[in-house]
Amino acid sequence: MPTIWAWGRNVLKRALENLGNSTVQGVWRMGFATRFFLAVLMHSGTAFRRFGLTIREMYFTGVLSLIIILVSGLFVGMVLGLQGYETLQTYGSEEALGVLVALSLVRELGPVVAALLFASRAGSAITAEIGLMKATEQLSAMEMMAVDPIARVVAPRFWAGVISMPLLAALFSAMGVLGGYLVGVQLIGVDEGSFWSQMQSAVDFEQDILNGVIKSVVFGVAITAIALFEGYDAPPTAEGVSGATTRTVVTSSLAVLALDFVLTAFMFRGLN
Amino acid sequence: MNKTVLDLWVGLFVVAGIAALLFLALKVGSMNTVNATDSYEIVARFENIGGLKARAPVKSAGVVIGRVDRIQFDTGVYEAKVTMRVDKRYPFPKDTSAAILTSGLLGEQYIGLAAGGDSAMLKNGDTLKITQDAVVLENLIGQFLYGKAQEGSPQ
To answer: What is the ipTM score, two decimals?
Structure first.
């Protein structure tokens, strides 16, 4: 009997120790992440003074993400057109298809799905690149040459991501509306005039489009900050870099969805 | 990758992104929201506003001439106080009446303004005297059933 008691106590003790340890580690990482984020902001001057660096990174994060964003936007819009028509025609209001497609894209799907794609397409690449730079001691080499790696490597990538994200989200929404138009008007035969005019009277520039842009800027900051930090913090091994890349995609996707809920609650609570 | 070619691609990307934003702003959304500088406020009180919401259109003869700005509850008279902004280009006489109407059978509700014959025009902050409440479907059905019951009752 006493042995079982001792064994039970041991298990409990170890569980509590693990809980405490991971909590302390989490808080520690949180503090390091905040310090890292502030350092990136402090060194942002370089990203703008030597804008060529930022443009180079915008090519890798923005331009190379274009294909996946445009194609997914088109297909999401086309599916919305089909599904929306199926539902709306039961109520005899298929003219409202434009409203449905445009509002769901501009308010939610555009920023969120584009951000999720951006996280897995560009965020993972950023983490892997910086993690590998650290593992191969390129970052330490820069420090040896009195080049601040945060200013030279991290800050341009951060601003490139923050600038690219709203542009990608806008392109996603625009492609989605075109996809909905193709399916709804060209394929199914919803009246073209009422498709556009109902959409225009329902979508407000400030309430819907501007809020969507604000959302995508926030998502851009969150995704690139997480990706950069995970890369910078990755253990300098092959295993560590691969783990950090996975964590980037998981954490930034969760962050995007959670932030989206918070932002939506703020933005659209007073509307109706 | 050549530096200039890279710049060209990023430039194209930014131009495409801005074009998409413009497309959203001009073709998908409408910029012609009534702003405070070229509009005037009028107030109308209703006993029942039904499903009227802020930002609902204000129409006259079917043309959108303004938007509902805010809806408050007036505890002094226990009525709804609806403030709307009407475009300055459309002045209305003092004895204009406001009604809460529905577009279609289940569509959104809006305020319809019917001009009167007064020679004096409404000024900023004026209150409309004649208003007509929203039609509540339940009351209408109730009245109909009551009427039917009276018709059918033996005298």
So the answer is: 0.80
